[in-house]
Write a structure and sequence with these properties.
alpha/beta; 8 helices; WH-like_DNA-bd_sf (chains A, B); Arc Repressor Mutant, subunit A; homodimer; 4-stranded antiparallel β-sheet; 41% helix; Rossmann fold; DNA-binding (chains A, B); DNA-binding
DNA sequence: CTGTTTTTCACATCGCCGTGAGAACAGCGA
DNA sequence: TCGCTGTTCTCACGGCGATGTGAAAAACAG
């Protein structure tokens, strides 16, 4: 499992650092931080973010407005707002603005963690889920890989399935047989040679030097994805 | 917009009726109720449910166990749990069991409403979103329509897109031009005649009598879906 | 009755996919 | 080192389904 990147936006340095520290204990997470909405929005634009934790009460822009801005700019990852008091209207307006969830301070870290995991899990099978693979941004629902330069590679159905499954496996190599069964189903009468051909075609599309794979690598009787 | 069906499971009749009454004020919702987990699970099996509201403290089965059971049986719609006291472990264990959200009693109805809407919105573009169209259950991600008898109809890419968009429009007819732009994009060089052919093929697949459409009906210079 | 909308169906093309056949390569025992 | 074997890669071929279009029939509106 590749680490998911979480952006934390809060002007309270102490809380922010505490969150970073706690989350870093789990190697399923990587963190980035910002102390203002403006900085947070800038980071969200540049980097690939899997989930956003944001305080409602920020010095520069109101949290709800920031959410609206982000969504208008095409930010699709789940957003969890951290709110000071338990104000109902905060919750309602925030959710309507485009936030996915609210957690009231003070909160137990374990509660936040559970919600973070739940939202990541959900989002990863939504239509606008986007994964970072090498220099590409991979959108399964659109069957497209987009270069960091912006040039797009169109993928076929099978190619998308293969990449989806390899991504879920993270850095670990996946056996041909397993991959075969996951993509084609258990009684498909298709041999691993078919899979190999698909891998070949994928490499022609996405590797800089197809004869020298750097992203989609052969290893231990199977394939794996290199981030 | 077709009404979404919400199943409410709670042994507190007063609260249950109150929720039903409130939700019925909006014609975007239809409600079903059950006073025990067992009854709720039974209903969830038979009917098409878009969202489940469930009390944690039920007389027969614990709410969390009920959630686990439902998920194990393949229930995919979002589940919002209603919890009496604000117990952290309740929340965490509930989310891990497969619930999507928690709301603590007492709650303002407007808050619950906002969360219900947020979850419906999210779920409708997830991979296991399922829509009820006539006697069919339509799963866009799988590109399949399943009869109430269980027989499956495989759909093509374009057919799926067309149905997805028509469903979102609800009972209102959609102009050929709009549909064309939504499915093919704005500069595709394809005429409405192509769309008409796709509609023809769809009807061959899903209508009982293709020459006498009952589901995918022509109206006002466009098409609409009849529930 | 006439022009327009809508349906019906056949045809041609294109892309996806599975397979065959051979090349390249690595490992291993003699 | 040589030869054998199994794995992996490369590439071309053929089939099939999805899609767009043409042509004509049918339905409909005025």
């Amino acid at each position: 499992m590749t680490a998911r990147t979480i952006l934390i936006v809060d002007d309270d340095t102490e809380l922010r650092e505490a969150l970073v520290e706690q989350l870093s204990l789990y190697d399923e997470f990587a963190t980035i931080q910002a102390d203002s909405a403006a900085n947070g929005i800038a980071l969200a634009k540049d980097d690939h973010i899997d989930l956003l934790l944001m305080d409602v009460g920020l010095p520069d822009i109101d949290g709800r407005e920031a959410v609206k801005l982000l969504r208008k700019n095409g930010f699709k990852a789940p957003i969890i707002m951290l709110t000071g008091h338990d104000g109902d209207s905060d919750t309602i307006l925030g959710l309507e603005a485009g936030a996915n969830d609210y957690v009231t301070k003070p909160f137990k870290f374990a509660v936040l963690l559970a919600r973070v995991r739940a939202h990541l899990r959900q989002h990863e099978q939504s239509e606008d889920a986007t994964f970072a693979i090498g220099r590409y941004s991979f959108r399964p629902a659109a069957k497209i890989m987009q270069d960091d330069k912006g040039s797009k590679v169109r993928l076929t159905e099978k190619e998308t399935s293969i990449l989806k499954f390899l991504y879920r496996a993270g850095e670990k190599p996946v056996t041909r047989d397993i991959l075969l069964h996951e993509v084609w189903g258990y009684n498909s009468g298709v041999t691993t040679h078919t899979l190999e051909t698909h891998i070949y075609r994928l490499r022609q599309k996405i590797e800089r030097d197809p004869s020298n794979a750097e992203l989609l690598v052969t290893e231990a009787g199977g394939y794996k994805l290199v981030p």
